[in-house]
Write a structure and sequence with these properties.
The protein is of the alpha+beta class. It has 2 domains: about 30 residues; about 140 residues, no CATH class. The strands form 2 sheets. The chain has a 5-stranded antiparallel β-sheet. A two-stranded antiparallel ribbon has the order 1-5. Strand 6 and strand 7 form a beta hairpin. The N and C termini lie far apart (about 75 Å). About 15% of the residues have low confidence. This is Peptidoglycan-binding protein. InterPro entries: Peptidoglycan-bd-like (IPR002477), PGBD-like_sf (IPR036365), PGBDSf (IPR036366), TAT_signal (IPR006311). Keywords: Signal. It comes from Streptomyces genisteinicus.
């Protein structure tokens, strides 16, 4: 028997397990979370936008009990839930837990979305329909979220950048939640 025949036989024996491994990896890659499968997760723990502020939420990443659990994006999502009457103001704490998940599911059901309790691409896009443009001043673009119960203001740099949102009033003016903070 030649070395060539021996190699060929070895390759044949390895091809079935190797093929099965490649198939399994392919299946695993297509059965990851819906947001990852649709490439909607951008990995940021904050909202980022460029151009028109009214479409900034159309490409945001996932926030749920396992992704961006404690983040600025969670603060914004909880503020949206509060503004629409699904979460008490005391629940806006920047930590995505069971109460936020249940509120997210109720919010999604009310809007005809899959109630998976995860704010992904479709959920953010639906929330984004309630963002309005208010104007620009001092290098910032201003807008607002038109909630069912409460409205709140948002802003970002006018050339594109990270969002800030008014998380409540502070003595002497509005308290802005910065993109790099978790404090809601």
């Amino acid at each position: 028997m030649t070395t060539h025949d021996s190699r060929r036989r070895t390759l044949r024996r390895l091809s079935l397990p190797l093929g099965a491994t490649v198939l399994a990896l392919g299946i695993a890659a297509t059965t990851v979370t819906p947001a990852a499968a649709s490439n909607s997760y951008n990995g940021r723990s904050h909202i980022y936008g460029v151009g028109t502020i009214t479409d900034d939420l159309n490409d945001e990443g996932v926030v749920n009990v396992s992704t961006n659990v404690r983040s600025n994006v969670t603060c914004l999502w909880q503020t949206i839930l509060w503004a629409d009457g699904y979460l008490p103001q005391s629940g806006v704490d920047g930590s995505f837990g069971p109460q936020t998940k249940a509120a997210t599911q109720a919010w999604q059901r009310a809007r005809g979305l899959s109630a998976d309790g995860s704010a992904g691409k479709l959920t953010w896009a639906k929330a984004g329909t309630k963002i309005s443009y208010s104007g620009a001043s001092g290098g910032k673009v201003y807008g607002g979220y038109d909630g069912t119960k409460v409205n709140f203001m948002v802003r970002r740099t006018d050339t594109g950048g990270n969002w800030e949102f008014a998380s409540g009033s502070a003595k002497g003016g509005i308290k802005w939640a910065s993109y790099n903070s978790v404090g809601c």
